[in-house]
Amino acid sequence: MNEYQGIILKKISYKESSEIIYLYTDQGLISVLVHGSRKMKSPFLNLTKILNQVKLIVSGKNLQTLRDGEVIGNYSSIHESLEKYTYCLFLSEMLYYFSTHEHDHEKLYNFLLKILPLIKEESNYIPYINMFELKLLYLLGVNPNLNSCIVCEEKDELTFSIKDGGVFCKTHQKENSYNNQTVQAIRKLYYHDLNKTKEIDIDLSLYKDIRNLIDEYYEYHLNYFSKTRKMLKGLIGY
After folding, report:
1. What does the DSSP assignment read for 122-144?
2. 92-101 pLDDT tens trace
3. Entry pTM
């Protein structure tokens, strides 16, 4: 028998009434077969919801099977907002995709546990989504250089180049760069310490550029583009 705690990122139907759930834990991704979970009288009917934080007792080797389990963190209210829920599906898809990469799963999982309650509770939750994406870039080893010009180490009036993965001063500025305001907003998100304060002051006019910068960065440096992003674009308009 093994015991796991984690967040359910994805589930697929298995045979007539069962499901396989994909759980993100401090050890990485784990798949578990839940027999009969789609039956109305199943004790696990509500256990297998996407974004549930659960504690599971499982057995088996190749495909582990659920023996007992309980919900220990409920984020069901996120489902009430289509936009919030789509953003969380967007994060879930990203986590699932990169779960096979070698990185510090314990650190990322613990950060996820800090972020989800904030997404659930806060009306201004989008910066927390962006913070998570930036944290993942760091753990994957492809974090951007945001501190000083790549050429001369100047630290003022910086612009950001996706291709070069870093910032440039006015003298060495590249074409099609993101402006200094966007760079400062990304820096604020990247270095924000949730242990000290939860408040994040980001100008609403910068959200579009922040979103596009992160998307382009993931696509260029990791060859990753989310399928859920298309749904999100339809909701938020960019």
Report:
1. -SS-HHHHHHHHHHHHHHTT---
2. 999 999 999 9
3. 0.93
